[in-house]
Amino acid sequence: MREIRSYAALGDSFTEGVGDLAADGIACRGWADRFAEELAWHEPGLRYANLAIRGKLVSEVLAEQVPLAAAMMPDLVTLAAGGNDMLRPRTDPDVLAGTFESAVARLTSAGSKVMVFTGFDPTAFPVLRLIRGKAAVFSMHVRVIALKYDCLLADLWPMRVLTDRRLWSSDRLHLSPDGHRRVALLACEVAGLPVRGDWRTPLMDQESRPGARNWLASRWSDVQWLTEHAAPYLSRRLHGISSGDGLVAKRPYLKPLTTASQPEPAAPPAAVAVNGQAPRHRSVRALNPAP
Fold it and tell me: Looking at residue 87, what is its pLDDT?
């Protein structure tokens, strides 16, 4: 595996780690921090930066984060963005892909290996599934861009386990801690790191309840989501306010990430493993053979 001595994560709330609180109960952890911890375990002295800020559009990531990361010239950069753009009704996924490609081109020309992420399949939630078509088109473009620029590809769309609502926060936009853990496992697979768990492991079934009660609970959950999350989001949009306004990146510079002990187990011991062969991913080892 190519040595990864430095790593920078770019993007929005997904990469910032919203939905996955750190041990202090205030800061965000998220899949990128978890992935960095795994990298540091295998590469002591790893320097890590996380420039992601919630609410950012792809154009903002290109303008604000990409130049900083290019100047740092890290060995690895992860780029995950586009979710906030997809939520805007007039977004053209073809045009958006052009902006995304510009970011990839700038990072690769700076000498970094880039790992790009497709979007999630939003089919789990009634309202969000309305953007499924353009999210699928954008994800198709990301796959083509990954091939063109010899990027590592973390394809989130086929992660069927993420259609389980229990892996999402109540706002239906951000992953739960276990959801972030599973994405970190995927990133480890793509990077060619040894993994100590399987992101495909299904959640334990909940106790069965009467169908009518399930339906009522689901409808009440929809009402709560509309009042607690959808309405405030629409209000911010109408007033031109972003959830990331006034925030700064949690790790704006490359600095050593120390791991006092081995990272936490990658899968809960009570989980049941899925049978079947894992899909192949293009890894750092495959793309960067040892000299």
Answer: 87
